[in-house]
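go over this record:
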Amino acid sequence: MSKLAVNLSMLFTEVPLLQRFALAKAHGFEHVEIQFPYELSVATLSQTLQQHQLSLCLINVPAGDLMQGGCGLAGVPGREAEFSAALDLAIDYATQLNVPSVNILAGRQSEGVALDACLDTLYANLRVASERLARAQIQPLIELINGINMPGFLLQTMAQGQHALDQVQHPALKLQYDCYHMAMMNENLSQCFLDNLEQIGHIQFADCPGRHQPDTGNIDFSDFFQTVINSPYRGFIAAEYQPLGHTEQSFTWQSGYFSMPDVR
């Protein structure tokens, strides 16, 4: 049985982060994601999760300046120590909060640095991160992000993601499969999912174009969700979209696609 989650970094943004937990619970969710939870202390997060009987299922390793248009940390030669410190923080949060998976953002190619040098740095950092996360019994993930919204991102396509797995050669490392990014890269969502099922450790969804809730774009979510439900995949399926309108009015997909007993 797959598990349904909601991303609190992108949904319920009408209120401050600490107030989003109650709204997630009120809408029937038992699991939440937070991209970068580090503005809140572990103690505050733990108390809030317990108060609302929620589990935190995914966080990202801090990514430096990536979200501000920079190159990030994981694939930048010379920033290995900064990446290691960021990984320390993510492991500390994940361990104390019982977070099962941690996502590592590859980052962008650095200006003036050869692509191969950036990728070699990324793969080396991923080997270290995968081993350290696995030792802590945390699932390491890498995410593919489309190069239209994030030009220069080091891992954009499924082929690039699979090549990264081949280069890192760590059995714990899996792919985070984001429907929006895959659709932006013109992948057939259902077939791509099935073809790479053994390497997928987490799913996120948003419609495309627009990155809004399902049924606002061109993705056939009826087909995709049924494909996932009928597959051996038993991980999380997380809503990570920018609501078109108010968040609380964006959940028509919840009863439409997830009223069946195979997803909780």
Notes: The beta strands are 3-7, 31-33, 55-60, 101-104, 139-143, 174-178, 200-205, 236-239. The chain has nine helices and eight strands.
